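Hi, here's the filled form for the chain we discussed.

Project: internal
Contact: R.S.
Residues: 269
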Amino acid sequence: MASSSPNLNGRENRRSDATIGSRTPDISLAGRSEYRVAHHLWTSYISTAISPNGKWLVCATRNEIRMFNLGFLTTGHVLDACQTISSSSLPEHEKIQEVAISQSVVTILTTSSLIVYGISESGKIDPIHTGSISLGGTWIPHSLNIFEREWTDPNDRSCGWIAVGGQGETAVKIFSLSWGNCWTMNERAVTLKCTVNTGSIRLVAFSPSLLNDPNHPLIFGVNSSNVIYCWDLRGLGRRREVDVSWNLEGTSVSGDSVSHHERHIPGAC
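And the returned structure, exactly as it came back:
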């Protein structure tokens, strides 16, 4: 089953981005100028992210999301939020953990749910999906990222992936996005497994540059013991589970620390 957003116009070229955690709303661009977004003294941002095209900034507190249009920045200018997602839009009794943003999709990870919005060219946000991913509290989400293909095919179709890092053997859940004349999300997740993972995945990221296959990027996860895991989505087909391709002890400098579980990925290590 897929859920969809209303038609969003003005799609541009896109690429993936990394979510950056921050507790300060000050932004430095290219080390040259400092800009400030409007905030209150009580505000404590627990997660921030900038879209790949540099247009949108999202800042999250535990209870609220604010989105800013960086295209309106001028030196010394205080920027007001163009969109706000308040606590009333969140599942009851849940707190925000992390945000991630691509060119036209913003994702929110709460205590146990995934929330997805589409972004129009003007900055209007429309809901795509809201749903629990904690499996009744048996799987706890910890990290979030999004990858969106930077080009469309001749029929103006595109795709993307949302990654949510969790804990234990069921390390990461992947949700696919597709674009026709609107965004839809497949609510049936692909599970990235890792039988040797005993911690939680505190950071998850995409790496499309290593493979000439933007539909199936590499996915990396770093767990609470600083072990790096990699999953290769090539050849996924109709499978709903993918075993870890290799892992690397983050605290080791020895080549012997690399463990290959299924296959070697050229250029990955």
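Let me know if anything looks off before we file it.
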